[in-house]
Amino acid sequence: MTSSDPIDYASDEIRQAAQQQIKDLRARKAVVDDDSIDVILRGARSHYAWSDKPVATDTLKTLYDITAAGPTSMNTCPARYTFVTSTEGKQRVAKALKEKNVPKVMGAPVTVIIAFDLAFWEKLPFLFPHEDRRSFFDGKEQYCYDTAFRNSTLQGAYLMIAARALGLDVGALSGFSNEIIDKEFFAGTTLRSNFLCNLGYADETALFGKLPRFAFDDVCNFL
């Protein structure tokens, strides 16, 4: 096999290697400890005030590498990320924000625009090489939108959890105009904005008490 040969991801060799990798991982760490769960979800908080500590570019690249490992349907990977760090970029974002959200963005070291590409399916020969599924999406605008929106939302959640795992704090925002963001950043492209997420190192003095959550029996059932 040469470097230009396609990889057969369904081959026995690759499948066995993938299966062994999972077995080895479970042998090393079968479950995550309680403190780690607290860091990424149970004890974590949304933050809207920030210290002036910057976020390193290498940290953002690592963040993407972790986020990209999360599953999406048919490995479509429709999310696209714009890391806004400059004052000029933040001012462009601010045009779309509700008034109370402007200081949250302007004070954050990084604001990520989590977007999705409606033409994601054109990349399926690379992302899903063992079967050509472009026909599933070609000419089907609503299906493309639903798939892109749903999976980019998942990928945005992966990003938030991965950021916390790397020691960053997060604050997601939906109080903005998608239409203005799309006009400002994605005009003439197949990209559309989903939601915004601030990243950085929080100023915890702005926190208030954690709001209630439903109990298991309030929202869960068995069939």
In a nutshell, what does this entry contain?
The protein is an alpha+beta fold and 223 residues long. The protein has 9 helices and 4 strands; from the N terminus they run αααβααβααβαβα. A 4-stranded antiparallel beta sheet has the order 1-2-4-3, sandwiched between helices.
How many domains make up the coordinates? 2
Q: What is the CATH C-level name of the largest domain?
A: Alpha Beta
Strand line-up in the sheet with most strands? 1-2-4-3
Rg, please? 20 Å
Beta percentage is: 5-15%
CATH superfamily membership of the largest domain, which one?
Answer: NADH Oxidase
CATH architecture of the largest domain: 3-Layer(aba) Sandwich
The overall pLDDT average reads 95
Task: Spell the H/E element sequence.
Answer: HHHEHHEHHEHEH
pLDDT < 50 runs, ≥5 residues: none
* Sheet with the most strands, sense and barrel status: 4 strands, antiparallel
Q: What is the CATH fold-level name of the largest domain?
A: NADH Oxidase
Helix content: 40-55%
Structural class: alpha+beta
Task: Based on Cα principal axes, name the global outline.
Answer: globular
Number of strands: 4
Describe the structure.
The structure is a single chain. This protein is α+β, with helices and mostly antiparallel strands and 223 residues long. It contains nine helices and four strands. It has helices spanning 12-28, 34-42, 57-68, 87-94, 102-106, 124-127, 141-165, 178-185, 216-219, and strands at residues 79-84, 110-117, 169-173, 191-200. It has a four-stranded antiparallel beta sheet with strand order 1-2-4-3, sandwiched between helices. The longest helix is centred in the last third of the chain and has 25 residues, at 141-165. The relative contact order is 0.18. The model has no long low-confidence stretch (mean pLDDT 95).
